[in-house]
Amino acid sequence: MKRAVGKRDSGLGFKAWPAAICVALCLLAGAASAQAGQDFSLWLEDMRVEALAAGISPALLDEAFAGLEPLERVIDLDRRQPEFTQRFEDYVTRRVSAARIARGRELLRTHAVTLERVSRHYGVPPRFLVALWGIESNFGQHTGNFSVIQSLATLAYEGRRGAYFRGELLQALRIVEAGHIPLARLTGSWAGAMGQAQFMPSTFAGHAVDGDGDGRIDIWQSVPDVLASAANYLARMGWQADQTWGRPVRLPRGFDARHAGLETRKSLAQWQKLGVRRVDGSALPVRDLHASLLLPEGVGGPAYLVYDNFRVLLRWNRSNAFAVTVGTLADRLATP
Predict the structure, then answer these.
(1) Phi/psi class of residue 305: alpha, beta or left (left: φ > 0; alpha: ψ in -120 to 50)?
(2) Does residue 259 form part of some domain?
(3) Residue 120 located in a structural domain
(4) Separation in Å, CA 67 to CA 35, 41, 44, 64
């Protein structure tokens, strides 16, 4: 919080507030701080009642809520997410780096047996699973060091999406209660996304699976669990095994931007007739597919024809930049 200051005194800095006003301001600030703390304590007690009713044990709640306070850093990060604050091309280019491509290709080879098994079962190509793994956590290197419980409690208490994060907090407690991970190891992103797949707790509850057959679901340390869980999610969201995500394209001069937008779908033949081509100038594929034209920076910027699988990636993260980045990395992993 910014500190209040007095009026500027010409050439002499700031005049001091009168003593009585200073005392009053200090008392008000202290009262506001105490009120905020009291409000969180009341909110936390209410959350505890709800969690108990949902079957969470008193012992776990005692441990999880002991000394818990809102974290201002979490609120700050929530208000400036990179998907919405960076230029589109910068976002994609920084994440589809040469180092990430090389590492992804190496992991495709290292985990070829697991990836083939998972891909055969769920119908999702290995390159997309590895691309998601790379974008979400840099292949498990960056899973976040925030306490998931503190992050979710902060966002639920802050109120902008309070009901959503309250539900996520309850799911996180259930994950610990079920024995998938100890409370002390339940760390993740500032938003409560967990493990190498960066699943929110509700996504974990609905889609995470035991990929290595050990009876636990460990998206923090088990690569088979990470890959199988990602594939299961995509499959349930409608992934089409015989399609890719989309492709970058070239537009003709004078193209009418009114054709663009995810709400508009045309066949590849119709896009071809409108003058849309692959980036190398060659004709579009001859397939019975419908696609939408994405122009994230207008007609003069990058252009993409995107298919239904692109919309599946948006179910994972509702950001066009994220979905294009995953698709682009997947394409680069497949290209020698």
Answers:
(1) beta
(2) yes
(3) no
(4) 17, 10, 11, 9
Asked whether residue 286 is domain-assigned, the answer is yes
Among the listed residues 155, 181, 326, the one whose alpha carbon sits nearest the alpha carbon of residue 246: 326
Structure pTM? Answer: 0.84
Per-10-residue mean pLDDT of the chain, 336 residues long, equals 34 38 41 54 96 98 97 88 72 96 98 98 98 98 96 92 95 96 95 97 97 94 97 98 96 96 98 97 95 94 97 96 98 88
| Count of domains forming the chain | 1
The answer for 159, left when phi > 0, alpha when psi is -120 to 50, beta otherwise, is: left
Side-chain-side CA neighbours of 307 within 13 Å: the count stands at 20
List pLDDT tens digits, range 140-188. 999 999 999 999 999 999 878 899 999 999 999 999 999 999 999 999 9
Domain of residue 278 covers 246-306
CA–CA gap between residue 251 and residue 101 (Å, rounded): 27
Please enumerate in sequence order all residues whose Cβ is within 8 A of that of 320, keeping only pairs 6 or more positions apart, or say none: 88, 294, 296, 314
Type of residue found at 50? E
DSSP state of 70: -
The answer to whether residue 268 is domain-embedded is: yes
pLDDT, one tens digit per residue, over 30-80 is: 333 334 455 999 999 999 999 999 999 999 999 999 999 999 999 889 887
Helix 223-236, helix 126-137: angle, nearest 10: 110
Neighbouring C-alpha atoms within 13 Å toward the C-beta of 89: 8
